[in-house]
Amino acid sequence: MITVSAPVAPRRHHHQLQSPTPVSAALPTHRHDLPPFLVRGSEGSMWIAPMAGLTKILLPLLLLSVAAAASPSSDAEAVSRFQEYLRIDTAQPTPDYAAAVAFLRDQAAAVGLEARTLEFAAGKPLLLLRWPGRRPSLPSILLNSHTDVVPSEPKKWEHAPLSATLDEASGRIYARGSQDMKCVGMQYLEAIRHLRNAGFVPDRNIYIIFVPDEEIGGHEGVELFVASKEFKELNVGLVLDEGLASPGEEYRVFYAERSPWWLTIKAKGAPGHGAKLYDGSAMENLMKSVEALRRFRTAQFDLVKSGEKAEGDVVSVNFAYLKAGTPTPTGFVMNLQPSEAEVGIDIRIPPSVHTEALEKRLAEEWAPSSRNMTFEFKQKGSVLDKLGKPAMTIADSSNPWWPVFEESVRRAGGKLGKPEIFPASTDARYFREIGIPAFGFSPMANTPVLLHDHNEFLSKDEYLKGIGIYESVIKALATHKDDGIDEESRAEL
Ligand SMILES: [Zn+2]
Questions:
Q1: pLDDT exceeds cutoff 50 at 15
Q2: How far is the CA of 214 from the centre of ligand 1 (A)?
Q3: Which of the four pLDDT bands, split at 50, 70 and 90, describes residue 487?
Q4: Which note does the record give on the cofactor (predicted)?
Q5: What is the pLDDT of residue 49?
Q6: Which H or E run includes 298?
Q7: 3-state secondary structure 355-390
Q8: Is the pTM here over 0.85, yes or no?
Q9: Model confidence at 69, in pLDDT bands (50, 70, 90)?
Q10: Residue 70's pLDDT band (boundaries 50, 70, 90)?
Q11: 146: annotated binding-site residue?
């Protein structure tokens, strides 16, 4: 792992950020409602304090802004900061992480947060921000968002996906990442900006991370981060990560996700003349499996269609490819039944499913060796965490975080739908795998689900409303006291 203490591109006041100590002596460090200008922690700390060198200029401005609640002009500024982030091209497979991190470091400095850039894989920076709490020994809150986005096909968009065009008539901001999930990352920062301006100080440490590579599996992002000593030092009690937009009035919240099983099934059989009817050909063997899998798929899908189960509660089965035939330069040999055939399948499994039974079914019914069939996992996500329990976060009052979260959304005027299982994968799984509770939540109501789609957009009003929701959520989580959660730190009180 490489720790980078300065952003990649030269920025205007970095020389000052790196040597904040001389300035600190003159600062009112006893004031809790001012930015932490000091580099926190003991010697060797790599935290970079915000705005050290600009203190004299910015302090009066900061004090002035304390009085300013969200006004039309500050709303417009928040929207334009969101647009600026959306315009940074962080699309896979060649995301400009350096530009995103440089922009976010500037934002963090302006908000008054301490920053560290960690690099667990070369060229893939993870930005870690800290808002120190009054009682840093308490388990902390970690607010996660990924900086990368999926690619787009600009020709199929009404407005260029990197333009972040604000359509004045509809109030929609069109951009790749407007829902998934640059909105959330900026909403965290805007909410914290408001809270700090209002003089609020958290009890717990609040950490905000901007992580790379979620859209390609997070292996060189959050997966490496959760295994690091830097992560352990954060003493994380709860993670907030991404959810999905909701076309209705209610926000969606996710407490678990389905695990991917990507597998190939291969069939072998005697080759034969294309005119001959005989048993045990590779294609016949494979098609029998495909038919059985399709029946299973239909049964699962029917449960969703009838409303009996939510999308995340069933096993989904989708065919990714079919491969067979004997190629010629212009196509395939037509009068020959091939000796091998193969199908690729994407299966997603909710944590409630008995996976041993499913795998038995795979071996006995969908890829039986009795029909010369084999199967191979390309990816086999576990539905269990490292302790052997289903990898899900409890979303009822037996989890002390849940009522606090639920109530804080309601207090800000939001409605929460019934907690759901996320139908696909997010980085939240890496936290749940090691037993840390994580909720997936992106406050976007009255919004069609357009992640990874053409014309992805979020309306300005929903974006601003979401900032208010996070203000309430962060405030509640940051000050929540609970013996169950804080047991370890009780001795220190
Ligand atoms: Zn996402």
A1: no
A2: 7
A3: low
A4: Binds 2 Zn(2+) ions per subunit.
A5: 79
A6: helix 282-305
A7: HHHHHHHHHHHHCCHHHCEEEEEEEECCCECCCCCE
A8: no
A9: low
A10: low
A11: yes
Q: For 427, list phi and psi in degrees, rounded to 5.
A: -65, -15
Interacting residues of 174 by C-beta distance below 8 A, sequence separation 6+:
157, 158, 159, 161, 163, 164, 165, 167, 455, 456, 457
Residue 461 annotated as lining a ligand binding site: no
Is 242 annotated to bind a ligand? Reply is yes
- Give exposure, 114-139, as e/b (b: 16+ Cβ within 10 Å): bbbbbbbbeebbbbbbbbbbeebbbb
Q: How far is the CA of 181 from the centre of ligand 1 (A)?
A: 5
Percent over 90 (pLDDT), the chain: 81
Q: What is the pLDDT of residue 293?
A: 98
As a dihedral over the C-alpha atoms of residue 59, residue 137, residue 466, residue 98, rounded to 10 degrees, the angle is 70
Q: Which CATH architecture group holds 259-349+353-380? A: 2-Layer Sandwich (3.30)
Is 158 within any annotated ligand binding site?
A: no
Mean pLDDT of 299-304: 98
Residue carrying the six token digits 């460090």 = 29
User: How many Å lie between the centroid of ligand 1 and the Cα of residue 82?
Assistant: 16
For residues 458-467, average pLDDT: 98
Tell me which residues are annotated as active site.
Answer: 148, 214
Strand-strand pairing, 259-268 and 373-380:
antiparallel
Provide the residue ranges of all domains of the chain, joining segments of one domain with +.
2-256+390-490, 259-349+353-380
Q: What is the per-residue pLDDT across 91-131, written as a single tens digit (0 to 9) for each? A: 999 999 999 999 999 999 999 999 999 999 999 999 999 99
Which CATH superfamily is 2-256+390-490 part of? Zn peptidases (3.40.630.10)
180 is in an annotated binding site: yes
Nearest to 375 by CA among 450, 292, 439, 432: 292
Tell me, in angstroms, the distance from the centre of ligand 1 to residue 245's CA.
11
> Are the beta carbons of 337 and 272 closer than 8 angstroms?
yes
Predicted confidence band at 484 (pLDDT cuts at 50, 70, 90)?
Answer: low
Alpha carbon of 448 to ligand 1 centroid (Å): 15
How far apart are alpha carbons 333 and 159 in whole angstroms? 46
Average pLDDT estimate for 337-342: 97
